[in-house]
Amino acid sequence: MKDAATDYGAVFQALPGMVALLTPDLVYADANEEFLRMSGRRREDVVGRYLFDVFPDNPDDPAATGMRNLEASLRRVLATGERDTMALQRYDVESPGRSGQWEARYWSPVNAPVLGQDGTVVLLVHRVEEVTELIEARGGPGGSRARVLEAELYTRARDLQELNERLRVAHDWEREVALALQKAMLPARRQLGHHGAAVRYRPAVGALHVCGDWYDVVDLVGGNRIAVSVGDVVGHGLAAAGVMGQLRSALTAASRVAAGPAQALDVLGLFAHVVDGAESATAVTTFIDCDMQTITYSSAGHLPPVLVHPDGRVEFLDRATDPPLDAHPDPRPRPQAGTGFTPGSTLALYTDGLVERRYEDIDKGVARLAESLARHRDADPEGLADAVLHELLPPEGATDDTVLIVVRL
Known about the structure:
This protein is an alpha+beta fold.
């Protein structure tokens, strides 16, 4: 006999702990029986309502931080797609049926994401364990010592929470400085004007994820030629931004005098050997000859540029790929390849933040990019870049820096 399908709704309601489901807008989608019983609320008081309308902070306690801390945790889960375990919280609850009377309650919350097929967060699992009785233990042998230990536990948890908050503030400051440094070192949009190019740079969401992605467009000596490059430095924060600036400047100088893109990357590889933090950095550069209608390219461990022809045919520039910069103790000549194009073709260079998703092979992201570029190929570069970002980046933003440069040939 065929087994009956599992009733996951019944399983959810029967869970022994307090569990609720929230939408990304922090509205209750459901709550199990234990959650309703322990919080003293009816289902109609909770489901369909905004979290903090149901459970606001105690207005009589100006030092209350429960609502702020819980919202910060839930926002982190939405931004990162990862579980967040909170420190022990005091979060007072209004007594059911007694308006204006608040009960001191202590909770141990954990918030976790439910991911959709596209990797975005579609629901939040909010699980809480009430520990009020533990914190307010009274009487019995050893009761006094228990109260001291429990009070110390709570105090240490609050201290840890405050320390984490100070660390986040520090990281926020570092993020702002790193972004300002990146902006100062990357080429201004006015440098792209006469090239028919569009650039999009999107920093990662979250204070800990400022990375070293970069791009460059260089007018080459002799003929109607330009070099278009992108790169990615391993690491985060100010250190990565500093390395990024050094590598970009070195490649800009090398491209102006190199015979081709492979030689430019050879020079960049030699420079990377003496730059701390340049290990495993990647870069790809293309030399575009607009008169001869050719593209010569070379890659140091970077994702392949995408060339979309006017008829929609997609060509990946992947025939000259080598390990990342500083990968070989003894530098050797890098490979180089070329291809032709017809006027009206579109060339796109990018970093992995655009195509890489958690739990998904990166080839799927690259294929998704190629399909989007081909479908919107008739748009001007600015419109094309906007369309691609709209289709490929999660609504809440990517967890890695993203660079996209689109050149209409």
